[in-house]
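INTERNAL AUDIT FORM
Audit reference: QA-55
Scope: verify that the stored structure record matches its stored sequence.
Auditor: D.O.
Record contents follow.
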Amino acid sequence: MRWTTALIVVFLTFPAAASAEGLSRRDGFLRIWETVKRPAYDARETPYIDVPEGALGFTEITYAKDRGLLDDQEAFYPDAAMTKADAAMWLLRTRNVDDVDEMEREDLPALLARYPIVKEAELSQTFAGIEDLDLLISSFTTMLRDEVHEISFYSEKFHGKGTAFGETFDMNALTTAHPTFPYNTLVRVTNLDNDKQVTVRVNDRGPFVEGRSMDLSLAAFVAITERSSGVLRNVRIERLGDSEMLEGHTGIGASDCIPADAESRRYQQRITRDVRFHRGVPHTFTVGETLQLGSSKFFVVRSVTYPDGYRWNAQQWIDPEEQFSFRPEQQGEHILRIGTAQGRVRDFRMQVGVCIHE
């Protein structure tokens, strides 16, 4: 068994550079990325030498490399035939079945023991076409959907405090903490004991209890059971996709509305004369919209003061390779206190309102 595993690792690490006779690695990965319903953004990651800027799939492939979803190698071999080993690795990573750092190529045999979507003897096989890959994706999706999970909730003790993604936790909103799902992922949760469902948005990390899959907000938990239940052990979790890509989904910050002043929005760009945001803090913003701040120099988000007077002492240092994400859930004035590495501080005031429907 140890010898077989070693052969698998060697095979996975050195993909062939020849042109694909069937489904190529580029086309296969883009299909997998399309089905996960997650946006790709510009990344500062060094691109693969054979997928340069302007090439088909450049944004998605470079972004995925930046996030650790693709191997950190010099070349991607986009025209080589995609193997079932490639597909299995990329499916497991894009579905976030574990922490990315726990899903290296040498971990694939153990991962396939948990999710037997491909047999070890088939890992070197290629795909005749996109239809074969779609069957594998469908099989894996069904496998994930049929898993049974244990979940709990969190409420008053954390209400008003900051989440792992820079939001303020609101126990009355339909949100959840998940250990690996990306920020803004929408998840349908079903209590299999009574068939009640709720759809929640990932805005925090957790839970930190062995064997437990999610911590729902109080509002989400009581939508599918009594609060006194405490823990549910017969739950189905279905990942729907990123909230920004699921237009028309109502109630959880989906992109089914636009800010009233979107065209005339003005931005506060400068912390000091020498430190500027790439875009900036808008004077007006929208409830449920995500603000992302980046700069070519270090800056620190010292605090955020909310309309109800609560002050979150963030103290988050943001380097030039990162962005600070903030998603306001309250109407009214928010004050972001942001400083430079040299200690200069400025307050940015942002008036947050509701959306208007087109």
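Auditor finding: record pair retrieved intact. Helices lie at 2-13, 25-36, 58-66, 84-94, 108-114, 130-145, 218-222.
Action required: none
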